[in-house]
Design goal:
The chain has 142 residues and is an alpha+beta fold. Helix content is 32%, strand content 31%. The strands form 2 sheets. It has a 5-stranded antiparallel β-sheet with strand order 1-2-5-6-7, covered by helices on one side. Strand 6 and strand 7 form a beta hairpin. The longest helix has 17 residues. The chain is globular and about 45 Å long.
């Protein structure tokens, strides 16, 4: 009998995160609003209206370096920085991420998952998330 009670408490006591809200999804690309367990206290400053043109400038200004070149940067060598997003990705992502932030609750993070096929390196995945706290936009890139 106690086993049944314990199982009942265990099953009903489980806390699950809310399901992601799909902003956009196709075979290669996805934009979602996901529950952010790190959004403590009052949470993020969402919803927020970030104009598409501003989001395009932000996305177009994000530069990355190859993992092997990061070590060179630490040593003081020159690093070749390249845009994180292609011009097409910027035009596609900007309105979707702006929409996501406009629809986000204080407990959400706008997330993205992009796949491109590179003839030399194969399937490349770029993913990350963004949220606003106060006056600052935080951008996570993986």
């Amino acid at each position: 009998m106690w086993g049944l009670v314990a199982l009942s408490v265990f099953v009903t006591g489980c806390v699950t995160e809310p399901a992601p809200i799909v902003i956009y999804e196709d075979k290669r690309d996805s934009i979602w609003l996901k529950f952010d367990p790190e959004a403590t206290g009052a949470g993020h400053s969402h919803p927020v209206a970030l104009p598409v043109e501003r989001m395009e400038k932000i996305l177009g200004g994000i530069l990355v370096a190859d993992r092997s070149q990061i070590i060179g940067t630490i040593k003081g060598d020159e690093t070749d920085w390249t845009p994180a997003f292609t011009p097409t990705q910027v035009k596609t992502l900007a309105p979707l991420l702006s929409e996501a932030l406009r629809k986000a609750s204080p407990k959400d993070m706008a997330t993205f998952y992009l796949i491109i096929m590179d003839h030399e390196r194969g399937r490349l995945v770029t993913s990350g998330g963004l949220f606003v706290r106060g006056r600052y936009l935080y951008f996570i890139l993986a």
